[in-house]
User: Fold these one by one.
Assistant:
Number 1:
Amino acid sequence: MLGEFDLEIPDSIEEALELLAADDAPAPLAGGTNMLVDMRAGGTRPERVVSLARLEGVRWIAERDGRIAVGGGTTVSDLLQDERIAEHGASLVGAARVFAGQMVRNTATVAGNVAYGSPAADLVPPLMALDAGVTLMSKSASRTVPLADYFTGYRQTVRKPDELIAEISWPKRGAGMADLFYKLARRKGDAITVTGVAVSLALAGGKCAGVRIALGAVAPVVMRARKAEAMLDGQAPDAALIEAAARQAAQECDPIDDVRASAEYRRHTVHMLVRRLVGQAVEHLR
Amino acid sequence: MTQQSPANVEFRQVGKALTRTDAPGKTTGRTPYAGDYAMPGMLHAKVLRAPAASARLKRIDASKARALEGVACVLTGPDLPDRLAPTDIPGQTGQKRMDTGQPILVRDRVRYFGEPLALIAAETRDIAEKAMELIDYELEPVPGVYDPEAALRPGAPIVQGKDNVVASQKMRKGDIGKGFAAADLIVESTYTSQFIEHAFLEPEVGLAWVDENEVINIRVATQVIEHFRGIADAIGVPHNKVRIRGAMVGGGFGGKEDVTVETYLAVLAKHTMRPVRLEFTREDSFLGHGKRHPFRMTYKTGVKKDGTITALEVRMLADAGAYVFLSPYVLLYAAVAAPGPYRVDNLFVDGKAVATNNMFTSAFRGFGGAQACIAYEQQMDEVAAALGMDRIEFRRRNYLKTGEMLATGVPIQSAVWTEECVDRAMAALGAPSEAPHPAARIGRGVAAYQQSYGRITWLHDTSECWVGVEVDGTVVVRSGVTDIGAGQISALGQIAAELLGVGLDDVVIYNSDSAVTPLAGTTTATRALYMTGNACRMAAATLRERLVERAAASFGVAPGDVDMAGNRAFVIGRPDTSMPFVDLVKLCAADGVHRSELAIFRAPFTDPIDPETGQGQVHPDYTYGAHAVEVAVDIETGEVTVLKSIGAHDVGQAINPAAVEGQIEGGAAQGQGYALSEEMLYEEGRLVTPSFSEYLMPTSMDMPLVQSIILESRSGLGPFGAKGIGEPSLTPVAPAIANAVADAIGTRVFELPITPERVVNAIGEKQGVQT
Ligand SMILES: Cc1cc2nc3c(=O)[nH]c(=O)nc-3n(C[C@H](O)[C@H](O)[C@H](O)COP(=O)(O)OP(=O)(O)OC[C@H]3O[C@@H](n4cnc5c(N)ncnc54)[C@H](O)[C@@H]3O)c2cc1C
């Protein structure tokens, strides 16, 4: 049972932000594919819910100022149908393709995926590797936070109760760059990620540049393997270096044991998948 | 995709993939399931479950809950008569096994996580839920035991009986000492299988009311309407005062074989004298019905260099969980199945089912036979590898053949087409797939099986069916059989239509009412078609005789010269000497010819087997077949992808090949989950996979296109030579996948499910050994 709550259904962002500014800090509800599940299980019991379902102007994809921007209400399915995303976010498309199942993809939003703060959120590693920023908007202000700084702890984020995720954006990608994502899960549809790895890098003059390795479900938050990135940046990537960087990534992560897999296995798969994805990226660019 | 052979040449209705009688209602949503029924003034029920696996109930106080407005009734253990929940198999002979005495509600001892403490009936579901929170109780932890091996150790906490052993089963044949002495090679391995969940689409649900005759009516989703007797005994009313009215069932797989919501509904309706509805949530369902028994199976096989098996010693340990339920029978099936479809002259099987404080375990498609297959088919591959012999060739040298004796010392009743099935399934795998990426390895596996259809023969199983012809030439079939989605009732329609020469559209079937449809027995044990199909065939055949005789009189020929087809009766070879079926029926009506027939079919009746040797008849007959798969294994991450999945089964005679295909495809999916991803995990008895986000059945993304190869020996004991396919189609799938994974990675994961992590560990161990 969902319990009892008041449901507000505003039509505009302004109205929604006004409602969120109230002292009782109502919970925003987008696709509901995280929140309703939690409410039914008794995990969250909000007294007031602000539905974002009817908001105008939150579901869009744009290209501006050298960036690709996605409105918070954009669904995972939307990501699969946009050429700009395909061109400038191949890893994000990769994540959207293995995200949940068709029904959930049709309703799950990008903002909801980020805002929920799960370390297993599949859109987050690719977005983080793409250097995405999160634009938070409140009744009175707007700010943009690097996604890499957005999560402060397990299911903890910098978002204040009166803020909404209005958009997520990242610099356009170009020639010589590769973006890859791999979701390892216990089955192929509708499964919670055991290990998620996103790799973005460029190859310039035979050397790696702008290396980003983002890891999902192997730490309390989606994290970047910064030491592994540093080992590759500016270097000519041969098999030994890639192997060493992959081992480093496995050391940097901080997984737990749960019903899906052990920490040890997660670490092993970070090693295997970082090696595989960096290898594929380099091979693709050569 | 289906291949059927030999081609159907004899029949007009049977053997054809006709649109099932239940299809239109289901596709348009007109078919009501048990959960769709409501009544005026109906109450809503909830079950309060113990949040501990092993505890003493020190006190329970429902006064606050009873005082809540809108609460009609709260029942706790002390409120119920001193009777036990019906947990034994329903049988016509009053066959009894050790009873472990589960009270309907906990009286003093909680033995498993989720055991029911109280029942609530209220005006709304919300009120019932609130009332649940107001029930005050105190549980005192009691040391529990959560592993069957630990439960056998001296000093272990006692869950049931004097030593936790709830059943033992022996099989003895020949002399294994001599057999092993004659062996050139002995291979010993241990295989384990896990708790799994039936996960039917429709959780348990029902609606009960007391009618004007004081009969407690229960509309419920069940495989077994004949539990009405056990329910009546449990609540202390005569058998004729409980009536079960079934409905189309949204999946059973053995999980609706035991009583689920019925007893709760009956006591609540009796106490309140109002209609009461109880619907399990998925969480209730996970906690509320028995799971598949985990088995630990040690196989020691002696073989000669030429591949002849000289001896087999098997030890089986099954986790029965907290109450007995059907454990002794599941263990019996496993022991009988232990050698598989192979000739083993020197056999020794010792099995035990042991009580623990885990969830109780009971029926699940395959019923012990599936667990045995997991062991015997993996063992066949292990032995072949040790011999350096091709896996198929090794099997070929040991297959049981038509006309030979079963390991239980009785002759096989029907054709044994194991070899044909294995060969056809393997051939259908075709050319090996390319590895999809550099870390992928392709592997193939096959498993053959022997799985019974029909119930244990000392249960003296019977089934009744009534067939009648209306004066307008339409046909009515009445049978108590429950249809759990496999097309059980539609098959009866095809059988009646075949014999009466009408179309399936001309037949209406009434089923699943314990008071007004002839009792047909359970829809379990792959028996519905065999038993009820035969009863229907007998009734329709008798009717046919009468009709043909009347037609022959009209035509002035002998009855043997008359046939009926296409809604006409005619003289064979003289199609213009004919009359419409409806006219014939009218003639019969005018003459007072009896236009209906109630038939009873009896399975073979035997005495129980010798408990010391396991020798004697256990089942009416067996189905034989095979499943073959091809997999790709990622050797870095351990992920397994099933690329091809092919079931080849001798079903005797397919009554409806599309329904057979449905069983093979469903079996392929359920078996794939069993092999790779499904597991009910308990920590100290507490379920840690309480939802579908942890309990992982294959999705459409995980399933390859399944190919069904239907072979028809027409040698079965069912109608028109049919065997059964419901359980058999599942049985070989998991071991086939296990064998394919082992083939791909060159080492074996001995535990199910074969998770990516276990694959990686097995590869790591192999490399560790090599370096
Ligand atoms: C069957 C199933 C399968 C799933 N599979 C996957 C999967 O494969 N990968 C994956 O990553 N996830 C998966 N999920 C989880 C979920 O679908 C995603 O996280 C989804 O993106 C959440 O989006 P939503 O719009 O449904 O969010 P909601 O559930 O509506 O909200 C989630 C959280 O975000 C907050 N929120 C929503 N919108 C905003 C906003 N604009 N600003 C601020 N806060 C906001 C809400 O308050 C809430 O705390 C699955 C869920 C289900 C039920």
Number 2:
Amino acid sequence: MSAGVDFAALGLEGLRVDHAAPFRMRRVAEGATVLTALDGRFAILDDDELRAFARGEVEEGSPLFEKLAGANLLADSFDVPAAAEMLRARRSFVGAGPNLHVFVVTLRCNTSCVYCHASRANMDAVHTDMTPEVAEKCVDFALSTTNPSVTIEFQGGEPLVAFDVMKHVIEYALERNANLGKELEFTLVSNLSLMDEEKLAYLIDRRVQICTSIDGPADVHDQMRKLPKAYGESGHALTLEWTRRINERYREMGLDETLYHVEALVTTTRALLPRWKELVDTYVDLGCRALFLRPLDPFGFADKTGDRIDYPREEYLEYYRRAVDYVIELNREGVEILERYAAIFLTKILRGEDPNFLDIRQPAGAGIGQLAYNYDGQIFTCDEGRMLHEMGDDSFRLGDVHTSSYRDVVGHPTVRAVVIAGQLAGLPDCNDCAYQLYCGVPPVHSHKTQGSIFGRMRESTLCQVHKGIQDYLFAKLAEGDAETRAILERWTTIRPREHFLHGA
Amino acid sequence: MSEQILAVPDAIARADMGDGSVELFVDESLYPLEAVYGASFTFLDRCFVFLDRPQPGRLRVILSAKKLGASPEVLREMVGEFANELLACAWREKITERNRATIEAVTMQAIGGAMGPPSLDDLEDFDFTEEPFEDPLGIAMSWEEKYGKKTAPPAATEGDEE
Ligand code: SF4
Ligand code: SF4
């Protein structure tokens, strides 16, 4: 057996491989094996085709020959320049420098999520608010990146608690960037329960993108994301109401609603697993164009509450497959909604491009694609590294805005180590995995779950999720249904949201 | 008190329930020392780790749980996890050796691109002298430098006069 391919059962004991270019393979369904080439192109073979390929019985000009040659899987026609070009395209982000700058403007939050990844603080913990001086230093630091595009993402705690700090960051960054001319974007990640008309007017005026969390139906959401009654009857109702109002505002401004809308994310807890249909329906009813079925992360409070809310990853994958099957069905009926995980992998699989999602790329984004700034000015490789700091582990701390230079931070030995560890070509299992060129595992996840930034993928829950999702997607492609393929291809379209860009 | 809680021969691993520790023996012809260090290191948060070499070619690793009262399941898990991490480290070293060129090229491009060229301030701060650090006690000096060379002085070149 190799990657699920039972050679003996297929009558393939005597293999000939001299006609084949280097490839990796994996069984994705009964009678369907995916072969991936060195440059990430792929072919899905049925058992007869696999047998013919393995025996070297591929007649020139036959449909199988065309299929294999088109995926750069044949030694004689192996196209070196094309392969080099494709590999370059898949790594186009390497060398660009940090684009995402996460600003933790406060740890204070009015909500208590059972899985809080941010390690929230109570509303009276005003000492966890970023001061204007620290905020300015963080902006100066972020704008010194080599990347011509900069996204400042406000996280917390709940950033709306420290709205004045946010405003200060935005105004100062716009002023400083007037001379620098970088493409500047702002993103707010908020539970929206403290939103009001005045704040929204400012955010719309300053073209700040807004992201929120919606954990499905009201009972699950309110059970997982507990909002004290003083702020409203239901956090779910408040989040939905503001999401609708913000989307409505975009429509009034004449913005294309397929591009401009609140981005909502799901954190999948155990209670949500059987509720996949209601979850999807909640997003569709809200007019959302995307949902992101994220599994639980091991950071923050989730580390402690895992017994109650976590689940085996096989159960997550079952929920994922059912939910995405349903999303595809809705697309057939004309509803335009995509699943974000699938879109990320499919962009790499079908288009040969990388959407630069920092947690599923290699090397991962830590330090070279993103930096996280704590309220006190300490700098970390990524927001997860900052979360670990709140849990007492400083492994991913790179310095601070008061004493460290940009080059000290980005050239820090920790950054070098995670860049090396984040390359799957150096990891057992990944090195031979058919999905290597589409995948990525953040070293901070392996560090937290397995005690080593390299990780052991055979035992990694993240590998299990990534492998399971890609198995599902390839199995869908193997079905050969033209309409399904067209839907999946549509999910890979990347269109820039120019309205949110400043200084471009 | 050594106990048989593991499905492996005593010569490879054994547990001591009283101490809450496990002892593992590693054949040095199978695993490189780096892999033993790498695997041991992943236990520092949970265990006190001791390494020694009781006999040539055989390393001993003692993992002693920091929390008192470790159960047989915890000790079993420690042995299993150590064995898996050891294999992962050893195998990774081989794979990295094979793919070193690609990994180094990507790393250099990623770090170099993110850092950008040094600014004038960076260059001003840079220490261009060949002295790497102050060494008043001469610790970093070679024996010959410190106590005078016992070898013959270099041959005089033309024009060298007394
Ligand atoms: S996850 Fe966000 S909203 Fe929930 S408690 Fe943590 S900081 Fe607050
Ligand atoms: S993380 Fe898992 S799925 Fe991804 S390349 Fe590695 S082995 Fe394959």
